[in-house]
Amino acid sequence: KLTWDAYYDSPEIYAWVDEITAQFPEIITTQSIGKSTEGRELMLMRINKPSDQQKVTVFLNSNIHAREWITSATTTWIFNELLTNEAYAAELDKFDFHYVPVLNPDGLAYTHNGDRLWRKTLSDHDSFWGCLGVDANRNFDKSFGGPGASSDKCSETYHGPSAFSEPETQAVRDYILANKDAIKIYFDVHSYSQLVLLPYGDTNLKPDDYADLLEKGLILENALRERHGTDYVTGTVPDLLYLASGGSFDWVKEKAGVKYSMGIELRDQGQYGFLLPASQIIASGEETLDGFLAIFNAIRDEI
Ligand code: 0X9
Ligand code: ZN
Ligand code: ZN
């Protein structure tokens, strides 16, 4: 039972998915989009409420990086709230959601029972030193192996032996390519630093439609700040962090053609970092839901 006053591993998160799906069978369907290296299900929720209105489809994934526990905590809170709080009923008439709560369940399990600060997947690519895992957010086929990724199998940012070497990134690729005409918005949820991340990550060049992305990113930033005064900053990955090739939202924008393809780095700014107290989950959920609804509606108004 998720109570959002603690952090959970994928079995508890998937139990919540099953429970809420049973509660709203006419709105939610679930499907497996693949299996992780260790055989865990990569579960996707489709939230599709029958409605007369023109819907905009949003794809969102969290916990691509294992140690970023606040990401699945925040997104499960958000979808639980959207589904159970009547105040948001009208929002479900406007948006369909394709949601992967845990993209890296092997890594997440390892952060619960082995190394709390593990980031990568747990695939075995025959490292001489026995190092495991690939940084799934360096494994997408956009500037694969370029700046900000490592060829060292023991590195935290190891890009993998080839683009899409990981079953977790293959699953996202295949699902998005199969649904790319429907999907209008893609969000990759990370922590920490309180940033709205815009493409690209692999180059200092900005996309041609960067002004549109920046305008929407600022809408998210400002709506999020209103709830609890939490300060976020909006910009491209290299402007705010560093160059990072092979990232998910770069591939989704450039190769799948999803215009509004971006990321967010949730709380905090480094005081607790990845070890953010669970007492902040609900506030993170509240402010991030406000921000997401503001940006989703702004994009929908434009489409
Ligand atoms: O380095 C990353 O993958 C992300 N930061 S984190 O501290 N959560 O690891 C930034 C996202 C970069 N996104 C793309 N390059 N598309
Ligand atoms: Zn991350
Ligand atoms: Zn609050």
Which secondary structure elements does this structure contain, and how are they paired or packed?
Elements: H1 10-23, E1 28-35, E2 41-47, E3 56-62, H2 69-84, H3 89-92, E4 95-100, H4 105-113, H5 167-178, E5 183-191, E6 195-198, H6 210-228, E7 233-236, H7 237-240, H8 248-254, E8 260-266, H9 281-302
CATH architecture: 3-Layer(aba) Sandwich
Number of strands: 8
Distance between the termini: 38 Å
Order of helical and strand elements: HEEEHHEHHEEHEHHEH
CATH fourth-tier homologous superfamily: Zn peptidases
Assign a percent range to the helix content.
Answer: 25-40%
Give me a quick take on this structure.
The protein has 303 residues and is of the alpha/beta class. It has helices spanning 10-23, 69-84, 89-92, 105-113, 167-178, 210-228, 237-240, 248-254, 281-302; strands spanning 28-35, 41-47, 56-62, 95-100, 183-191, 195-198, 233-236, 260-266. The protein has one domain (10-302): 3-Layer(aba) Sandwich (Aminopeptidase).
